[in-house]
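<goal> How does this chain fold?
<sample>
Here is the protein in question

***
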Amino acid sequence: MRKAGSVNMQVLALCFMFAYTLGAATNTLAQSAQDIQTQLDPSRRGASAPAAPNASRLELTERQALSKARSQFSGNVLRISLVGSGGNKRYQIRMEKDGKVFTLFVHARTGKITRGS
């Protein structure tokens, strides 16, 4: 009987050691995942992260461009795409109203709306 108790204690000790090792490995994996997230998402970095080179030139999002266009023109949106490069980036928005298709351009930085031909 004494031997069985001794074996049980050894098995129990091994189980505790395994659980401790598994916990340490889990913590390491969790820290690695957090490090990867920080690398992928700059907003998770501290205040020491360098500012983006074009931070002073914020661009409208696609949703903001649609909102601006819809505030001045009604109709169904058929398509939106970002066209141009550099300081001339614009959202090209194809719309339809009463069977007529027309194009609007919303400047990505200034938000100025122009009609296409």
Remarks:
- The chain has two domains: 2-44, 62-115.
- The first helix runs from residue 2 to 40.
- Strands lie at 76-83, 90-97, 100-107, 113-115.
